[in-house]
Write a structure and sequence with these properties.
Shape: flat
Number of helices: 5
CATH topology of the domain at 11-83: Arc Repressor Mutant, subunit A
Number of strands: 3
Strand order of the largest sheet: 1-3-2
Distance between the termini: 52 Å
Length: 112
């Protein structure tokens, strides 16, 4: 992976497809996914993102796919530094009822 000199990603160097790949990775990252599979036909755009230091890619577990992850520079480019996960506020509040997990504690879940 080669990073550009000032550790900033210039949007002018991104194709529309590369921008969409970054947007998908950012959305998945917000949901807790650290990587996502893309069709191998997007390999050229994924390699361009790797060259810019925005993402890393490796052969997917399924044939014809590439598993891609955001790098720190990629996250800085697509995610606002002020972003806080929605659950961060909910779990910090004391008045939110946390219900038991129905799979791990079925008796407690169905008793409520």
């Amino acid at each position: 992976m080669v990073s550009n000199s000032d550790d900033r990603i210039d949007p002018a160097n991104l194709t529309p497809t590369a921008e969409l790949i970054l947007d998908v990775l950012a959305a998945r990252w917000r949901l807790g996914e650290t990587s996502w599979r893309f069709p191998a036909r997007l390999q050229a755009d994924i390699r361009a993102l790797e060259h810019l230091g925005a993402a890393t890619g490796q052969a997917g577990k399924r044939d014809g796919t590439v598993t891609v992850s955001l790098t720190d520079a990629g996250r800085d480019h697509v995610i606002n530094p002020q972003y806080r996960p929605p659950l961060a506020d909910r779990t910090a509040r004391r008045d939110v009822e946390v219900r038991p997990d129905p799979v791990e504690q079925p008796d407690a879940y169905y008793a409520t």
